[in-house]
Write a structure and sequence with these properties.
Blueprint (H helix, E strand, L loop, with lengths): L1 H11 L5 H12 L1 H15 L8 H25 L11
Helix pairs in contact: 2-3, 2-4, 3-4
């Protein structure tokens, strides 16, 4: 089980570029950045595709994935200890 746990930590470990994270944070902390982020949340992240076209559904999910990455990068700066994975005994 310990070997699997070690692999899981390695698999999900992401070495964040701190300067890039700061750039995300600074960009989306401005008034204009907040407006853009709110627009993306309203028009992409919090929408549900109700059609039958699988390509359009995949497109929305791809766009949603990008917004999610922006949110994760901002969260990494605001709460750095939340994303620290430690291995216990």
């Amino acid at each position: 089980m310990n070997r699997f746990y070690s692999w899981l930590i390695y698999k999900w470990k992401y070495d964040y570029d701190k300067s890039l994270l700061e750039s995300y944070y600074i960009t989306f902390s401005t008034e204009h950045g907040q407006r853009v982020l709110h627009h993306l949340l309203d028009s992409v992240y919090c929408t549900i595709y109700e059609g039958l076209d699988p390509i359009m559904m995949a497109t929305l999910n791809g766009r949603r994935s990008l917004v999610h990455e922006i949110l994760e990068n901002i969260d990494q700066v605001e709460r750095p200890n939340k994303h620290t994975i430690t291995m216990e005994g």
